Predict the structure of Transaldolase.
Amino acid sequence: MIARIDTNTTLLDQLLALGLKIDLDSCDVAFARTLPFRPADMTSNQAIIAEAILDPTNKETVEAIVRSLPGMEPFDVFTILHAKFAKEILPHITGRVLAQTTPSKPHDREAIIAHARAYAKAYNAEGISNDRFCIKIPTTTSGVQAAVVLQSEGIQTLGTALFNVAQAHAAAQAGMYAISPYFNEVKAHDAAERWPDVADPGLEHPMAHRMGAIRDAYDALRAQDKYTPQIKGASYISVLEVLAQPELGCEHVTLHPGPIEDLLWATGQPAFAGGKWKQRLAEYTPECTPWTAPSGPDMVKRDTQRAAHDPLGNAPTSPGVHYLADGVLDAANDADPATKQRFEDAMACFVRAEDNVLEFIADIQRS
């Protein structure tokens, strides 16, 4: 039974009191410095680190670093820049900084391993030990096979771009440190019409069923004394989505600055107001009522409702499948239209960001 939380505290305080960890989905050091708490981890991907590298306020710093590495390939400079920005964030978090392997080669096992090792070398060169970073790897056959190698070398890995239970099982079989199921598809951050604008995301959001199924799958593995990665949910747009995550099994939620600002503004659950895509609560000041995470009979009822139907289609999965074998996970991903499309969209977004940064670095080198 979950105890009722003191409603005089902010929603962020209430979530922390439940044991939910808040991760920062940003490389913005200035924002991290303003927070009245220290996030657990700082995640990143090519789009997030691109924002920091291309930010005009960081222009002199970035140019100085690039010029200090003459003759180095832009891709390798990008990796080092990532580590240097992570070093600046590290004092403002309690846990790990994360970086993502190149999205241009999600099905190339050796390329994934090589880039993860390069990140580890860059982090270590900045004085960041292996227990303070984690490498995000696409949850493909090549990705989970690479994770087995990297975990054996003491490089912790996270299964990212994860949309189904088969991927969650594969990450567990690979011994990955964590997984990041995407609650919203990447395109929902750029187009309001792609965002499920619902009053009760824990039941009505298209990804809620799969999040609950991943939670149940890991509960079943733990009941058999088998290893399970940490569930680190990602890709949230509204504070109502964040409030749904404790019941869906998330141990960490990875949040952009906007939702963090909302959690610091509200002391209760904000009333649903449709059509507020990416608008912050302080902009329209909705009425807030006391919030308590579902528990007891209410939780059982909601679990039953959620499990009855997968709005994204029934993705094939079986805990008995050896997902680390060649091609098995890729076949499961390809057989699920929602995963296939969302994975491709995510990689395309990150490739565009990576290409922009590589061209930016090359321009500095040519100047």
